[in-house]
Amino acid sequence: MNTLNQQWELDSIFAGGSESNRFHTFLNELDQAIQAARKQLETQKIPFTHNDVQPFTALVERYESLCKQFNEAAAFIECLTAQNIKDQAAAQANNRMHSLGAELDAVNSLFETALREIADADFQTLINAPQLRAISFSLNEKRTLSRKKLEANQEQLISALAVDGYHAWEDLYYQLIGKMEITIAHHGKKENNVGQPGKQSAR
């Protein structure tokens, strides 16, 4: 009888896991793409008008692509950490993702500022373009919610401080949990990290 493999096939995503050269190349390319998008938004002529359908569409698609790539990388690192919480290379990659996340938040703040600055009539024309019609609701909602936020430079400061504050404490917690072990009797004695006894008792 075949037994179910309870370990993820992460090599099918990026061969080599946390040591994957392709994954580190992916992160480097993501970093460069985020920096390029930030530079574009900082120098972009705003507000967009109804005549700017093509550049506005290109900006939205670029932003979408960055978010998708970031989420893919973050999910992969989360899986690596869940698989082996003592994986130091995964921990280092996770720290880098926090920094990239702060940079992406900066891009997001600038993107939201660009949305806010567009006149209502022009905005409706832009989001009803054939290329953006499918996500017009999301863009409209993002623009509305952005009006409740602080100025872009203040939002960027919050994101930057979170790297060594909120995120760092969360990482420290999981690192400490990973070092703690409890011996339990389950078909003989066995060493388990703190997260495993709960899983065993749930079976």
From TrEMBL:
SUPFAM superfamilies, alphabetized: Metalloproteases ('zincins'), catalytic domain (SSF55486)
Keyword Zinc: no
EC category: hydrolase
UniProt keyword terms in alphabetical order: Hydrolase
Entry EC no(s): 3.4.24.-
GO molecular function annotation: hydrolase activity
Domain of life: Bacteria
A Pfam family hit: Peptidase_M3_N
Transmembrane segments: none
Coiled-coil features, chain-numbered ranges: none
Domain Oligopeptidase F N-terminal as annotated: residue spans: 117-180
InterPro entries xrefs: OligopepF_N_dom
Protein name, UniProt field: Oligoendopeptidase F
